[in-house]
Amino acid sequence: MATSEARQAAARQEDGRRGAPLTPDDRRALLRYMLLMRATEERGHSLYRQGKVPGSFYDGRGQEATAVGPAFALGPRDRACILHRDLGAHFVRGVTPGRVLAQMMGREGGVTGGKDANMHFADQRLGCVQMVSMLPDMALVACGLAIAFQMRREDRVAMTWFGDGATANGQWHEAMNVAGIRRLPVVFVLENNQWAYSTPNELEFAVDPVERAAVYGFPGEKVDGNDVEAVFQAAAAACERARRGDGPTLIEAETMRMHGHGAHDDMRYVPKEMFEEWEARDPIQRYEERLAADGIDVEPIRAEVKEEIDRATEWALDQPMPDPSVAATGVFAEADPELGDGEAPWSRWRDGHA
Questions:
Q1: Which of 308, 264, 319 minimizes the C-alpha distance to 37?
Q2: 70: helix, coil or strand?
Q3: I want to staple 109 with a disulfide (CB 3.0 to 4.6 A). Which of 46, 203, 220, 319 is the partner?
Q4: Are 228 and 34 contacting, i.e. CB atoms less than 8 angstroms apart?
């Protein structure tokens, strides 16, 4: 179920034109990925209401540009630590809607083969890293990846996403600190969607998080998170900075979560005026208007996405539930045969490999 846009994006990245001006095909792909994200989540929510998706349901409506734009700047050997509101990043990396819908329903055809539902999944073969629910622990994972790239002298970048609420957690500061000290090739994408669940920005922090980057010794940049090209350009510049050995960048993408924290949240804490203001800044509608003004016909893209989602839904519903005898396999790492019983896994590093 691979798409021509995914192949084109991969070819663009292979060509090393990550920061080059976007071509018309690139721009069509950006719109397509955002439309795929929204359409897949809308279909997933419908399946949830039908009782076909277990647990709760989380989506990123209104944040499509902050998911797609940064991921589009990554190269094929880079690594993406993607969170639960960034489905579009999975599509940029090559995951297909059918696999995502099957994943949401816990089906065998899902990304994890039925081992989880709509949050903790990633295809490592495509350079994606499965998310850790406790935010912002993925920032630490990205730093670990970046340390490995740096030690191996590899031309690779780690990227991670997180919300504004994560910046109040000590783990976030630890990640920022080690990234700055070691000048790691990591890009931090802060999706400031105005609310940490029901807590507004003014009760989260006294200083804008983007200003904290300077304290840790690297640049921070604030961008319009509902402008996919602006987010892409900021991420592309940050990736190139990391590849030059100049260290990390913090990108604060200002956006808005247009649905509740989860399907259980009615968002009654959001003022009506605020919701209406951000609804008028919808990232997909704005980009469609921009492309149309530049002479790019968006209707074929919309029609193609609708057809693909219909096919993907049918395919996902046909996928069986996983066999209970194998559903729990491959969950834990195998024991290292080189280690003796009771020997700590870090002892070899400590005893001569540091």
A1: 308
A2: helix
A3: 319
A4: yes
CA-wise closest residue to 252 among 288, 287, 201, 290: 201
Percentage of the chain exceeding pLDDT 90: 67
Could you give the dihedral angle defined by the CA atoms of residues 138, 143, 144 and 147, in that order, rounded to the nearest 10 degrees? 170
Which tokens belong to 304?
């193609």
**Residue 119, CA atoms < 13 Å, CB-side half-sphere:** 11
H-run or E-run covering 253: strand 249-254
Angle at 297 between CA 295 and CA 303, to 5 degrees: 170
Q: Which pair of structure tokens corresponds to residue 43?
A: 């279909």
Compute the mean pLDDT over every residue in the chain, rounded to the nearest whole number.
Answer: 88
Which of 21-30's residues contact partners 24+ apart within 8 Å by CB, and which partners? Answer: 22/229, 22/232, 24/296, 26/72, 27/229, 27/291, 27/294, 27/296, 28/291, 28/296, 28/301, 29/5, 29/72, 30/68, 30/69, 30/72, 30/228, 30/229, 30/232, 30/287
Question: Strand 186-192 vs strand 195-196: parallel, antiparallel, or unpaired?
Answer: unpaired
Task: In whole angstroms, give the CA distance from residue 102 to residue 224.
Answer: 33
- CA–CA dist 34, 12 (Å, integer): 18
For the chain, the residue count is 354
Query: pLDDT-based confidence at 212, cuts 50/70/90?
Result: very high
List Cα–Cα distances, 264 to 41, 63, 119, in angstroms: 15, 19, 15
What are the structure tokens assigned to 314, written together? 């049918």
> Residue 6 is encoded by which pair of tokens?
């995914």
Nearest to 88 by CA among 127, 108, 60, 115: 60
Residue 108 burial (CB < 10 Å; 0-12/13-18/19+)?
A: middle
Residues 6+ apart with CB under 8 A from 340: none
Tens of pLDDT, residues 310-349 = 999 999 999 999 988 777 777 666 655 554 444 433 333 3
